[in-house]
């Protein structure tokens, strides 16, 4: 029986870059999101969680009530609009400047952690009934749906001409993003909870089968796999020929993709807690949240700890980095802005409810939802 809630899921778990491009072909993706948009989970196809936009102040510009069922989905921001899924079963489109609701699409089932992906006028998201929905960004009208064999918590991404999405049916699915027609599916040995990262023709997925797999997007065949040594809920972040992600064996891994081996493993000397948060990458730092109630920053080359920052509850929210600051939510109901180099607290916002979704940053604004269904937008007034 598959887990039906976040709680059940968590209980289940107790130059290299140049060489890589030469081998697989030149990538068209960048490591940081555009300053004007954040079109998918983690901002870009490498899932780096980083943008070239300046750091916004944590001044509330507007708040939108999406319903008491809560928001676990992370927002996308494109063309002055915010798109986000809710546990009330709605995919919402809001005006970025005012927070005014533009449309609401009824998915027919709860939208959990799956976050919208915006591509060429279409918004795609998965729900807990296992359905991928594609709707028009202009008016929220349905374009197509695709049914997988189990719930979807991964976020769709469009890369290499395919829409990629993992499902609890143990498969990574590749669809035609225009029609929803199946192109291929790859079966793993466990539920596919994490979102796929993409670079140079390969989709990388860290899964519940404790493997990091590289799948060719052209034909759905596995290029290689690397054992993680632990059950993984986090999504891999790619940079410089390496993949970075945490596991439920209380470790963070830096994986050498060219050498197809783990380059380093990080584990806190005293605290042994899982890492569920996906990493953000910037300025030689790997930054992610831990179940030990701390935010961890590691040296990307060595895996050595650079700093830690203590919150008052577990940190499942995945950080976003902009302008030398780390923005991350905590189960303690606060959104934190930290200095990337030192981990010092710059400012914080008391949301009043836990934050497990990840911040999205674009056009001078930061948007993030809470478990009590409030979507907050921050930025500079005037």
What's this, in brief?
By secondary structure, this protein is mainly beta. The chain is 4% helix and 41% strand.
Report on this structure.
The chain is mainly β and 382 residues long. It has a single domain (6-379), classed as 7 Propeller (Methylamine Dehydrogenase, Chain H). The chain has two helices and 32 strands. The protein has helices at 6-12, 16-24, and strands at 60-65, 76-78, 81-85, 90-95, 101-106, 117-119, 122-126, 131-136, 142-147, 157-159, 162-166, 171-175, 182-187, 197-199, 202-206, 211-216, 222-227, 237-239, 242-246, 252-256, 261-266, 280-282, 285-289, 294-299, 305-310, 320-322, 325-329, 334-339, 345-350, 360-362, 365-369, 374-379. It has a four-stranded antiparallel β-sheet, with no helix packed on it. It has a four-stranded antiparallel β-sheet with strand order 2-3-4-5, with no helix packed on it. A hairpin with a 4-residue loop joins strand 15 and strand 16. The protein is globular. The relative contact order is 0.16.
Question: How is this fold's topology laid out?
Answer:
Blueprint (H helix, E strand, L loop, with lengths): L5 H7 L3 H9 L35 E6 L10 E3 L2 E5 L4 E6 L5 E6 L10 E3 L2 E5 L4 E6 L5 E6 L9 E3 L2 E5 L4 E5 L6 E6 L9 E3 L2 E5 L4 E6 L5 E6 L9 E3 L2 E5 L5 E5 L4 E6 L13 E3 L2 E5 L4 E6 L5 E6 L9 E3 L2 E5 L4 E6 L5 E6 L9 E3 L2 E5 L4 E6 L3
Antiparallel strand pairs: 1-32, 2-3, 3-4, 4-5, 6-7, 7-8, 8-9, 10-11, 11-12, 12-13, 14-15, 15-16, 16-17, 18-19, 19-20, 20-21, 22-23, 23-24, 24-25, 26-27, 27-28, 28-29, 30-31, 31-32
């Amino acid at each position: 029986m598959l887990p039906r809630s976040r709680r059940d899921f968590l209980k289940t778990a107790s130059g290299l870059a140049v060489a890589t491009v030469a081998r697989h072909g030149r990538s068209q993706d960048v490591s940081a999101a555009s300053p004007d948009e954040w079109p998918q989970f983690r901002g870009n196809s490498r899932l780096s969680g980083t943008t070239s936009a300046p750091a916004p102040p944590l001044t509330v510009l507007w708040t939108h009530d999406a319903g008491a069922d809560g928001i676990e989905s992370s927002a996308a921001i494109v063309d002055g609009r915010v798109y986000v899924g809710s546990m009330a079963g709605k995919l919402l489109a809001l005006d970025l400047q005012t927070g005014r609701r533009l449309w609401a699409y009824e998915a027919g089932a709860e939208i959990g952690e799956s976050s919208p992906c915006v591509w060429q006028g279409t918004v795609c998201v998965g729900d807990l009934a296992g359905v991928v929905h594609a709707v028009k960004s202009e008016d929220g009208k349905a374009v197509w749906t695709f049914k997988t064999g189990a719930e979807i918590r991964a976020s769709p991404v469009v890369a290499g001409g395919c829409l990629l999405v993992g499902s609890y049916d143990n498969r990574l699915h590749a669809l035609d993003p225009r029609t929803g027609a199946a192109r291929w599916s790859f079966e793993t040995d466990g539920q596919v909870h994490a979102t796929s990262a993409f670079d140079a023709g390969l989709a990388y997925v860290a899964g519940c089968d404790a493997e990091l797999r590289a799948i060719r997007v052209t034909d759905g065949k596995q290029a290689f796999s690397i054992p993680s040594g632990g059950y993984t809920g986090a999504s891999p972040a790619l940079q410089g020929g390496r993949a970075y992600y945490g596991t439920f064996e209380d470790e963070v891994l830096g994986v050498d993709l060219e050498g197809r081996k783990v380059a380093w493993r990080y584990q806190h000397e005293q605290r042994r807690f899982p890492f569920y948060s996906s990493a953000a990458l910037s300025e030689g730092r790997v930054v992610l949240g831990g179940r030990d109630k701390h935010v961890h920053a590691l040296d990307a080359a060595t895996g050595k700890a650079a700093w830690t920052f203590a919150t008052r509850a577990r940190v499942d929210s995945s950080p976003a980095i902009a302008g030398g600051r780390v923005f991350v939510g905590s189960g303690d109901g606060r959104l934190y802005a930290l200095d990337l180099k030192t981990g010092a607290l710059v400012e914080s916002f008391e949301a009043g409810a836990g934050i497990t979704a990840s911040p999205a940053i674009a056009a001078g604004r930061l948007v993030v939802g809470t478990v009590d269904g409030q979507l907050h937008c921050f930025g500079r007034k005037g």
